[in-house]
Amino acid sequence: MAIDYDKLLALKIPDAEHSYGDKDTMLYALGIGLGHDPTNRAELDFVYEKNLKALPTFACLLGYPGFWVRDLDTGIDWVRIVNGEQGFTLNAPVKPRGTVVGKTRIVEVIKAGNRIDLTTPIPEHRPRTSDQVRFLAACPLTRSLAFTEEQLERMSRV
Length: 158
Hints:
The structure is a single chain. The protein is of the alpha+beta class. Helix content is 20%, strand content 25%. It is built from five helices and seven strands; from the N terminus they run αβαααββββββα. The protein has a four-stranded antiparallel sheet. The chain has a three-stranded antiparallel sheet with strand order 1-3-6. The longest helix is centred in the N-terminal third of the chain and has 10 residues, at 22-31. 18% of the residues are buried.
């Protein structure tokens, strides 16, 4: 199946509600290597319940809708996807516990040579309750998909 650009840009990716707590926050920090040095007191706030803080990069995992490229009718051969780049911007600190709703959408589709780049902000987080601080985790993720000349020719006819 060929990729239909208009259909891809109009694709409705389901919102993802994500509740997380102290355990999730600490496991993330431990998973990326914090707490490895028991004498580093600066890391304790991220791996111990007392004064617990969330790392800013934790935001890119929250409210993620899963592997939507494979699950939705996109026309994309998901086996050929690679993560090109990723970054994020926060407008408030990430809380160590809470519930967020992630809203993901495709904002750009670029045909470049024998690949297509998709840019998706992953995701915009909205708190589930009014007592939580809303933060925007704009994590633009570019996914590149490599195609054969034949596949590109079929896409250009659509």
